[in-house]
Amino acid sequence: MIKDLLKKENIKMLDHALEWEDAIRYCVQPLVDCHCVEARYAEEIIANTLKMGPYYVIAKNLALIHGRSDQGVIAKQLAITLSKEAIIFSKEKKAKLLVVLAAEDSESHIGALSKLAEIFMDESRIEKICGFDSIEEIYEACLKADTGK
């Protein structure tokens, strides 16, 4: 499933921390560039966060960032940003690994989130990925995790 959703060009590395709003814009941008989401998708997620808090920070150093399908999604796709410094979403919620999901309907949204949660449920896997220095390492780790290898 991940190999169908994640393109290597949608993986970015960030060598410095950003304010959480700018981090969301940064990690959504590859999906805008490949025409999988409208430019407003990042702003919709920011608005959701202001209303509900950082609901997508689900584990230490992991944010599964997503909005609703009617908030500018065009096609199902993933983007990943690895920040060398934690992005602070709130006093308690910080993340280095930012995974953005765009899903065009609620069924595929839930299915993709479920698969991502399964892959990233292993905290040691998250920490290992957070130590990577290349896009290739991140991409290969995600593919291996998806196939269970």
Overview of this protein structure:
This protein has six helices and five strands. It has helices spanning 2-5, 20-33, 40-52, 106-120, 123-130, 135-147; strands spanning 6-14, 57-59, 61-66, 77-88, 94-102. The mean pLDDT is 91. The protein is an alpha/beta fold and 149 residues long.
Radius of gyration: 14 Å
Arrangement of strands in the largest sheet = 1-4-5-3-2
Shape: globular
Would you identify the regions where 5 or more consecutive residues have pLDDT less than 50? none
Question: What's the order of the H and E elements?
Answer: HEHHEEEEHHH
- Structural class label: alpha/beta
C-alpha end-to-end distance: 14 Å
Helix content: 40-55%
Quantity of strands, as a count: 5
What does the main sheet amount to?
5 strands, mixed
Treating each run of at least 4 consecutive H or I residues as one helix, how many helices? 6
Instruction: Give the overall average pLDDT.
Output: 91
Q: How much β-strand is present in the residues?
A: 25-35%
